[in-house]
Amino acid sequence: MVLADLGKRINSAVNSAISNTQDDFATSVDVMLKGIVTALLESDVNIALVSKLRNNIRSQLLSENRSENSTTNAQTKKLIQKTVFDELCKLVTCGGNEEKAFLPKKRKTNIIMFVGLQGSGKTTSCTKLAVYYSKRGFKVGLVCADTFRAGAFDQLKQNAIRARIPFYGSYTETDPAKVAEEGINKFKKEKFDIIIVDTSGRHRQEEELFQEMVEISNVIRPNQTIMVLDASIGQAAEQQSKAFKESSDFGAILLTKMDGHAKGGGAISAVAATNTPIIFIGTGEHIHDLEKFSPKSFISKLLGIGDIESLFEQLQTVSNKEDAKATMENIQKGKFTLLDFKKQMQTIMKMGPLSNIAQMIPGMSNMMNQVGEEETSQKMKKMVYVLDSMTREELESDGRMFVEQPTRMVRVAKGSGTSVFEVEMILMQQQMMARMAQTATQQQPGAPGANARM
Ligand code: GDP
């Protein structure tokens, strides 16, 4: 089952529990949990983790609801959504490790070493990470310490040239630790902030490979070791990551191939098996297909409720700094105006590929699933026309003036060559983002709204 299906099935289990008024509360919770549990198991999530999630949701829902007989329907709905959301987040979070996450510093040498099996996507991910950091103002170099596979250096070189990232490697040296050391020395001398070292893989976990990684690691002393894990390998991910953990004590996981048909659940379980956080996910073959992993963002996207955190993270790299700052200030105040919405739509259209970005806006991923990328792109263009037809006063407002004076909607629809319905849809989406911004400030930073629609 692909992740999008998993999200849909969880949503449908939650929604049926919310709308069920015939059974008693405990029965609806059990029916909902059965749906969620089946969906997670079919996505390869480890059975012990699923069972824990089930028990946690059940006990929380039943105890909280019993304590408040007067609970209204809306409150029950919120409680169910929030409890399921929080427990799903716990499933992909590993015990507090996130706070200890490595953050590279500018004007210092930060060495990042990649490990993983051949074909997991290591070389591609090294380049993606280099691009990710260079877009954020770091001076990044790539070192190919894979002397085992013929053609490894050429592959890294081609990727690096395409991405305009300086690189180092050797066609003659056979000792990978030596090449790694030389590369690091060269980039250190040239005052690079981040040096990413790609190591060799094998088809299987072999003693020789682990030995080699220990040797390289002893020589280069990385600040961070990232294990690259192919999300499509299912349950095998757990055993593979445990074996790597024993030899090269990696501190972070980068999950590749989360696009396409990956079930993803097996890889997610690897987090629990090694108590190591997933820090990035690869979502395609292109060098920009890398996303910072955050449990809340991931679950928000999985459930199609939009993801203000990731959207903002993406916006910072592409949009006009002043615009991004103004939107950030608004979000921090719990505000999200139509103008913020317009700027985001314009930026999103520059960012591409649309499929990666659409998931961050509430309702967009559903649209993508239903009508495909081209039609969604057309619809997004229309949305910008609608926003273009609004006055400055309207754009800077929270949108309520349209509800109070519906003739404004008629005027905007006429001006943009769209329908009143289309204008209403945009207002609805902006309202959802505004609610998310509001709850994000009320709860812990970045938390998606407890009242966001699932
Ligand atoms: P390595 O042997 O571990 O260095 O793996 P490569 O970097 O050569 O990648 C193996 C294959 O996986 C290549 O065809 C990549 O384009 C592909 N690949 C890597 N990451 C992703 C990803 O996130 N999504 C998809 N769809 N393909 C990926």
UniProtKB/TrEMBL annotation:
<dbReference type="GO" id="GO:0003924">
    <property type="term" value="F:GTPase activity"/>
</dbReference>
<dbReference type="GO" id="GO:0005829">
    <property type="term" value="C:cytosol"/>
</dbReference>
<dbReference type="GO" id="GO:0005786">
    <property type="term" value="C:signal recognition particle, endoplasmic reticulum targeting"/>
</dbReference>
<dbReference type="GO" id="GO:0006616">
    <property type="term" value="P:SRP-dependent cotranslational protein targeting to membrane, translocation"/>
</dbReference>
<dbReference type="GO" id="GO:0030942">
    <property type="term" value="F:endoplasmic reticulum signal peptide binding"/>
</dbReference>
<protein>
    <submittedName>
        <fullName>Uncharacterized protein</fullName>
    </submittedName>
</protein>
<dbReference type="GO" id="GO:0005783">
    <property type="term" value="C:endoplasmic reticulum"/>
</dbReference>
<dbReference type="GO" id="GO:0008312">
    <property type="term" value="F:7S RNA binding"/>
</dbReference>
<dbReference type="GO" id="GO:0005525">
    <property type="term" value="F:GTP binding"/>
</dbReference>
